[in-house]
Write a structure and sequence with these properties.
four-stranded mixed β-sheet; seven-stranded mixed β-sheet; 2 domains; binds pyridoxal-5'-phosphate; Aspartate Aminotransferase, domain 1; 15 strands; Aspartate Aminotransferase, domain 2
Length: 397
Amino acid sequence: MHPAATESSLQTIERFQQFVIPNYTRYPISLVHGEGSYVWDAEGKRYLDLFPGWGCNILGHSPPRVVKAIQEQAAHLIHIPNTWYTEAQGKFAEALCTRSFGKAFFCNSGAEANEAAIKLARLHFRGERFQIITFANGFHGRTFATVTATAQPKYHAGLGPMMPGFTYCPHNDLDALKALVNDQTCAIMIEPIQGEGGINIPGDKYFAEMRALADKYGALLIFDEVQTCMGRTGTWFGYQQWNVQPDIMTMAKGVAGGVACGVMVSKNELAPDLRPGMHASTFGGNPLAMAAGIATVETIEQDGLLKRCQENSGRFREQLTKLAAELPIIKELRIRGMMIGIDLKISGTPAVAKCMERGVLINCTHDTVIRLLPALNITSEQVDEACQVLGAVLKEM
Ligand SMILES: *Cc1c(COP(=O)(O)O)cnc(C)c1O
């Protein structure tokens, strides 16, 4: 047994069966300890985690600076409401906005950040426009507004009626978008790189033309950067890869180094539209998450992790390209920073269990896409180990 475990995986699983609602498909393993890109189960087996915290652990498991910041903050204030000022919220807002734009609103998750964005966009038009365009295979969350914004019928089944006011557009199809945008459009909402949708990376001109279209009709452009924020793509934010600034940007997942936190950043001129009394979050911007967020920004900056992300991305690309040349089951590689999609001609689901047996954790999305969201500080040796195991597993398939 691992020293951090107090019971076996099996005992934990039995407790879940009795007391936890079974809305997740879980692997039959209880995880008890992590350090960087490694994580251990209750039985003491070590795994190389290429999908740490579903992309939330942007610095890997329990990064030391974040741990220390949380410990120090917890001894002073864990939570106080937004009727007061705190140093940490101001400083984290500054750290994010000076690297992007505008002003920040804090909440606790990606869905909540997108809810705030949708409400701000509609409030901006004071009831005169409400139509929001989103894109096929996008993913924006599980609350009613954000699951409606998520243009994937499988996530709507049995939930109806969905929230009114959303229009779906095919992805990567500017002509289709042109046909949908008009002077009734409130906002266009999109992920710079679709994550859950299978690491779909648009072409060079896509966002510039989208921006021009939004401007032509006075609509707002919202980028959902819940998965692409915080250096994930090799720049602080995904939009910087295309050099197209949205009016509103949302963040979550890695933004506070693994602590629950959501953020909406809005252009200065829009910010007053989220008027007092119209939106709030009780836990939003709490000192613990803010301290973790500040430590995350400092770690990325001080350890040169944007550069390291780009270098490791190249290292993955080189080895996976070789693999793709050998393996006809690989249809396409889609890589940007530490977002890696390996699109297969067959189902990728069996690869997840096969990799786990060999001590490597990966994800598969949309049935055929092996998705990796490695920590920005993964080592080059770990990249090599990852590619070796992936290669061996894919050769067996
Ligand atoms: C994960 C994700 C969300 C939802 O975030 P939650 O924290 O689960 O609410 C929204 N948008 C994108 C792009 C995501 O990847």
